[in-house]
Amino acid sequence: MTYASYTITLIPGDGIGPEVIAAARRVLDATGLSLSWDVQRAGACVVEEAGTPLPDKVLASVRTNGIALKGPITTTLGSGFRSVNVAIRRALDLYANVRPARTLRGLPRARPDVDLVVVRENTEGLYVGIEHEVVPGEATEAIRIITRKASERVTRYAFEYARQNGRRQVTAVHKANILKITDGLFLQTAREVASDYPDIAFQDRIVDNMCMQLVLQPEMYDVLVLPNLFGDIISDLTAGLVGGLGLAPGANIGTGCAVFEPVHGSAPDIAGQDLANPVAAILTGALMLGHLGERDAAARVEAAVAEVLAAGEVVTPDLKPGRPRARVVGTAEMADAIIAKLS
Ligand code: NAI
Questions:
Q1: Quick check: 234 and 126 in contact, CB under 8 A?
Q2: What's the rounded Cα separation, in Å, for the pair 24 and 10?
């Protein structure tokens, strides 16, 4: 019997990134898969040494390996990049940002029965970053680009994802009542794509109504597909529904490669203090294993995380509220507890 081996670009990132990514790496190594890690530094941490937060060799490594596990990168002012994260997504054409939000047992602050996947358009919208002063100090303008091509491939990805993962419904989220031309094109394109998938129910929601619906009855929704900014905002909302940013995994999918990263940022308020919850990064690692076709290993990691959270004996500080008997542990000890439960 032969076993597959994988070379994965590992980008620790800034702030809590190195702590949570180290924890995720240990858990993934403990699955017994043959994983070798090509460590590449990007972000504020590398600017002084490399003269740029995004050295060419980082992108070259991801292109070669086709897959990366990435920690959060701080958005610095004056680095020559509006955002390194946006630059990576655009340079590698990672057009779909996939952010699952599923309720796990044992989290008092989580809403019950949430099982959603946010699919966010990742290459255009307001994130093209074209803005300027029209009248200095008085009036400003930002350009929001929506194309048929990007809308079509992200909505098609959402339907394909739904089909391949046994999901039944896709909801397109938009503001086409006001943004009649831009979001009108996004919605019209989504409707056309939906007609190719008669086995998947399709509906649409205006984004403000969607926010209320997600707070009141999140269990009614399945896969959501959204333009870039709405997806960014709604995916933090859905992370909150299931217990917070410390639990929310994510993936950036392109045609040639994929970069897996938790939803959360570099959390400078808790960085370097062994306070960060590594579960988001660990579940991100499980998503990556699933993408590699290692579904059994991915399921084992998810089960170990679920078992530790349900038992509630140890928690990172963000999970402490509502759990008086749980012992508060740091990032590394939380990863140890998860490794101990790996079957
Ligand atoms: P953030 O996600 O870093 O933090 C928001 C809040 O959530 C903070 O109170 C933080 O302590 C908490 N938090 C986040 N992750 C946590 C974890 N794993 N465990 C426990 N608590 C956690 O968002 P913020 O403060 O808006 O951004 C900080 C920096 O990160 C900025 O420079 C931002 O641009 C960058 N960022 C990077 C992202 C990426 O690399 N993909 C995504 C989001 C933000």
A1: no
A2: 11
Same domain, 98 and 127: no
Domain end residue (candidates: 241, 274, 291)? 241
Strand, helix or coil for residue 213: helix
The reply to whether 296 belongs to the active site is no
Q: Are residues 54 and 137 in the same domain?
A: no
Q: Name the residue range of residue 45's domain.
A: 1-110+243-343
- The CB of 270 under 6 Å from ligand 1? The reply is yes
pTM of the model: 0.95
| Series of mean pLDDT values for 10-residue runs along the chain (343 residues) | 84 98 98 97 92 95 98 81 88 97 92 96 93 96 97 98 97 98 98 98 98 97 98 96 96 96 96 97 98 96 97 95 94 98 93
**Looking at the 3D structure of the chain, how many domains does it have?**
2
pLDDT of residue 81: 73
Judge if 233 and 254 occupy the same domain.
no
**C-beta 269 within 6 A of ligand 1:** yes
Distance CA(117)–CA(263), nearest Å, equals: 13
For atom 4 of ligand 1, the residue with the nearest CA is 267
Ligand 1 midpoint to CA 165 (Å): 29
**What's the burial of 130, exposed, middle or buried (CB within 10 Å: 0-12/13-18/19+)?**
exposed
Catalytic residue check, 161: no
Both 278 and 325 in one domain: the answer is yes
- Centre of ligand 1 from the C-alpha of residue 85, in Å: 13
